[in-house]
Amino acid sequence: MSEIIAPTSEKLAKTMDHYYDTALDMLKDVYRQIPTIISRLIIAGLVILLGLIVLRILRRLINFKVRKKNGKRLPRQAETVRSLTSSIISYLIYFFVALVVLRIFGIDLASLLAVAGIGSIAIGFGAQTLVKDIISGLFLWTEGNLNVGDVVTIGGYNGRIESLSLRTTTLRGTDGSLYAVPNGDIRTVVSRSRGNQVAQVNVTIAHGQDLLRAQQILEDECIRIKERLALKTIPRLYPAIASDARCVTMRIEMPCDANEAWSLEREIRLSMYTRLQKEDIKA
């Protein structure tokens, strides 16, 4: 029995020695490559830093050129071109920097492209949304449906367009929230910046109230709103435009600039309901 165990123990010891020597050789190789790895990391960091500096300079140059041509207050079309141009240049700089960094670390781009070709089907399915966003962004830009500064409703979000990129449209909501809507998700655009805009407020009057008296009160409040806000015309009242089991609806409309629509609607709504409450009319 001892004669069988002895050869087995010797074989196990030789195997352990072999793995130990292999691990030691690997550690030595890593140790010898540390200076090379550190130098490559430093060079890659410098390349990334240089890319960010170049990107910042190009963005400032674009802003300078656009503002020099159009003045300090940019037209919406000029601001849209500036935003999209900056977006395109950013993607190009990021792509170029990524290629250079890969090259620094000795990654063969041909092999990388071959691997990408093998997995092109999976990558294609994964990139469908990205490609759709970019193509949709190009169509929205070329067709002129959206411009920076427009007041719009997109995907149920109300706000002013702050920036346009190839992939997303950024809105600043009326409450200050910032919404980034993928261009591929934009199906319908409701613009409040094209043509004349109308501030529209519906006021409900509960059944059982004196509707004629409520109408007179609302008309008087329209005159007061004109005087208080120095409006060009008196807001127009449309009495009893709708009715249901609970109340009668009256509407106030006032032509205005798109930039003033929401604030004017809030002011009219607050004034009307405050006045109705003061006159003891249930809304």
Describe the protein in words.
This protein is an alpha+beta fold and 283 residues long. The protein has three domains: 15-98; 108-191, SH3 type barrels (Roll), CATH 2.30.30; 197-278, 2-Layer Sandwich (Alpha-Beta Plaits), CATH 3.30.70.100. It contains seven helices and eight strands; from the N terminus they run αααααββββββαββα. The chain has helices at residues 2-70, 76-104, 109-118, 120-126, 128-143, 211-229, 261-278; strands at 151-154, 157-164, 168-173, 178-182, 189-191, 197-206, 236-243, 247-256. Strands 4-3-2-1-5 form a five-stranded antiparallel beta sheet. Helix 1 packs antiparallel against helix 2 (76-104). The radius of gyration is 34 Å and the shape is elongated. It starts with a helix and ends in a 5-residue tail after the last helix. The model has no long low-confidence stretch (mean pLDDT 78).
Task: Give the secondary structure arrangement, pairings included.
Layout: H1 2-70, H2 76-104, H3 109-118, H4 120-126, H5 128-143, E1 151-154, E2 157-164, E3 168-173, E4 178-182, E5 189-191, E6 197-206, H6 211-229, E7 236-243, E8 247-256, H7 261-278
Antiparallel strand pairs: 1-2, 1-5, 2-3, 3-4, 6-8, 7-8
Helix pairs in contact: 1-2, 6-7
Compact description:
The protein has helices at 2-70, 76-104, 109-118, 120-126, 128-143, 211-229, 261-278; strands spanning 151-154, 157-164, 168-173, 178-182, 189-191, 197-206, 236-243, 247-256.
Indicate the low-confidence ranges by residue numbers: none
Outline: elongated
- How many domains, in number, for the residues? 3
Report the end-to-end length measured between terminal Cα atoms. Answer: 102 Å
